[in-house]
Amino acid sequence: MGKFPKGFLWGGATAANQLEGGWNLEGKGISTSDCVTRGSRSSQRLVTYKTRDGKIAAVPIYELNAPDDAEFGCFAGYDYPSHTAADFYHHYKEDIALLGEMGFKIYRMSINWTRIFPTGLEKEPNEAGLEFYDRVFDECAKYGIKPLVTLSHYETPVGLTHAWNSWDDARTIDCYCRYVKTVGERYKGKVEYWLPFNEINSLEGAPFTAAGVRKKSLQGAANIAKHQLLASAKAVQILHEIDPDNKVGGMVFYFTCYPNTCHPNDVLKAKFQMRVPHFYYDVQATGIYPSWKLKEYKQNGIDFSLSDEEQQTLLKGRADFLAFSYYMSVVASADPEVLAKQPGNMFTSVANPYLKASEWGWQIDPVGLRCALNEIWDRYHKPIMVVENGLGAEDVLNEDGTVHDPYHIEYIKSHIKEISKAINEDGIDVWGYTSWGCIDIVSCSTGEIHKRYGFIYVNAEDDGTGDFRRYRKDSFYWYKKVIESNGEDLD
After folding, report:
1. pLDDT tens digit string along 87-117?
2. Span 278-295, pLDDT tens digits
3. In this predicted structure, what is the pLDDT of residue 464?
4. Beta strand pairing status for 46-50 and 71-72?
């Protein structure tokens, strides 16, 4: 197998709401994820809020249509996994030491916005929150680990929702920029890699967690996208001004989409489905809204415009690199009969008969990652980082403290091989790879902690049992060897 570039950034990734816990400690406010209950493979996660008459409502996260006066919060009788998660808040020294033992070069994590500005509306930050991340970054530095910080990873303050429906309103841009400037200045010299938003295209499917918005609508999606894209561009400019060495990326949930057949309608359907991530990349990489998106807005009666100043903001705030999460490929069909017959994958209703699936039904396609890298490179010619990629599985902790997880090793190995081919055979500039959930965390899709991704086992269960002790899995030692060999030794 070909060599990885010298200085390739090997590591792993987590998100504050899925890892930290300590949800209400030391002045932290309530984030959107704090209001989302635990789900399962058979049940959706719910968002909880109080109505004007004092009743508590719990609505499926992807079907949320809350009234304008709904008060989002956390209520007795509901299980909120972000409140404890993997308790990194009290284990961060131990956890970062384990990442250092593996030899991590980079660790992707998020700053929880509500630790710094509890409601999002404050003019002055919460010093205790700033100090917590000072300690985290100092621990990373002890082991030579570079933090890659996501500034907004499904942790929007619900205070902004209550004030003016959050990212549906342009005033949220100023609140966000105040937050970016605060942490950028505070952690200058400690953090050089930044992502303004996690999976920015997820605002279309999950507008509450991604943007703090009360309900789905086409007009709302256009508003949120505009405001977050402008905020992302401003974050690039703010962070560059604070430190010219800062590198600020754009990040989307990405997938490879295959046509179900070679019928032209299926091919066209697949091409159009890829517009979901490409729209956001187009703006973040080029600073220009694509013509097809403007036409789509017009055809759907969406009120949209960009002032000259806003256009200049997008152009001046283009991303330095492009990052993405990749878990699976999807299959598109334009035939309603095909769609009706197949249960399919997470984000499509057509199953791919050539691929195996995880225990949670996510189809596994390493070659699709190489396809994705080629597509992104060919379109944008910007450096790329794969910042999420992993397999959720049910691990077993043995009495002797071992966890045998060959399935994690095989999944990561097969995807690393395709990254190597993209670098060495296709000539793509890939900066780094951070596997998702390097330590067991709460799953975003279901809220389960027993859907385990990590190289490190956290002894905790969905029912609240467990002592939260950490154990090295077999994959821990394997990934350590991968990093030591700079990707040459995958056996």
Report:
1. 999 999 999 999 999 999 999 999 999 999 9
2. 999 999 999 999 999 999
3. 87
4. antiparallel
Q: What is the pTM of this model?
A: 0.97
Residue 349 has a pLDDT of 64
The number of C-alpha atoms within 13 Å of 264 and in the hemisphere containing its C-beta is: 0
- Catalytic annotation, residues: 199, 388
Q: Quick one: CATH architecture of 9-33+80-484? A: Alpha-Beta Barrel (3.20)
Question: Distance between CA 71 and CA 400 in Å, rounded?
Answer: 47
What pLDDT does 179 receive? Answer: 99
Look at residues 171, 85, 183 and name the one whose alpha carbon lies nearest to residue 126.
Answer: 183
Pairwise CA distance, residues 410 & 400, whole Å: 23
What whole-number distance in Å separates Cα of residue 379 and Cα of residue 250?
14
C-beta separation of 395 from 457 below 8 A: yes
Q: Is the pLDDT of residue 344 over 70?
A: no
- Kindly list the distances between the CA atom of residue 443 and the CA atoms of 310, 393, 449, in Å, as whole numbers in the listed order: 36, 11, 6
* Residue extents of the structural domains in the chain: 9-33+80-484
